[in-house]
Amino acid sequence: MHDIKYIRENPDKFDDALAKRGVEFTARNLLALDEQIRALKTELQIGQARRNEASKAIGKAKGQGDQGAAQALMAEVAELKRRLPELEEKEREVSEQLQDILAALPNLPTEDVPPGTDEDDNVEVARWGEPGMFDFGPREHSDIGPALGLDFETAAEMSGARFAFLRGQMARLQRGIGQFMLDQQTSRNGFQECAPPLLVRDEAVFGVGQLPKFAEDMFQTTDGRWLIPTAEVSLTNSIRNQILAEANLPIRLTALTPCFRSEAGSAGKDTKGLIRQHQFEKVELVTIAHPDHSAEEHELMVDAAESILQALELPYRKMLLCAGDMGAAARKTFDLEVWLPGQNTYREISSISNCGDFQARRMNARFRPEGEEKGTRFVHTLNGSGLAVGRTLVAVLENYQQADGSVIIPSALLPYMGGIEKLEPA
Q: Are 203 and 103 in contact (CB under 8 A)?
């Protein structure tokens, strides 16, 4: 959500920032609604004050025996009582119209976010590690996985496309990856482990910016709740409608949860394997930060995600997303793309975003600066993957595959594998 005061003071700058994201918008049309609301509020205040004044004058007129004046005042009060509810309803309608427009607009990119429309305009910032050399043709995970316990057919029979059934050593590896990530983010990187709800109400998904625009990307239950598309929803909403103490910032949270996405509009994309699933696991990172330190926290979160890839010795590159490729709630985003030798390309495995106060305004999440008794400011929220478990599993399978179809377990995961050092084809 945007600050209407900022838009009033910077209408052209607001339009230019949205244009950078490819959104055509005229702030002055929005400000016409804002002016109408303020005029209605002023008229209401004047009317309410006059109603109170006239009501008091009625008694005075009667006490002085001036029945004509009393009757005139009573008629005026009656007309105000009829008119004021109409003004209140009109003000409510126009305010809702304004809020609906604001709620549908994406966040404004920071000045250092490059312009562009899609992933082709993203900027590579850094690379880590070198893609391994194979003395055989490396295969994709969807080709080597079935012999190792990655069962797509059984999942499709019971659930349809974009689901997987993991068995034995493969299921153990997925569990080990998730536990390793969670341990790293809590013990090494200072995030607090959480076990949040997987079902949330409308206001929670609205708070992070999923509603109203992206409802089709999620699954909804018959009682109106939503299955979380990421633990970002639950973790960020943990501070909804709160006023935090400045001393308690930053708050760093993490959770390993199932995530559910309808993948609307992705027909034909990544239909093979684990890359784009309706149900998957992910370790999410969320930080609630002081506005003056959110940029610093953003770098810290990127480092936390990178630490997982480095520990697993998986080559990757760091990308700064262009304005047109960022999520709607983000003002700046870094993607980490892991090398997949079977596909001979880098693929996204983590996206870490600074949302500024965009989500906080939608959630009414604030903090009180030290030394101030009444004043409050909106916090900044940040989120990212640390990492997506399924895509990390894909990266391990493809980067550690052997010519005989086996997969060596990275050394960092050995403590989680119960003595298994290599996945062997059945």
A: no
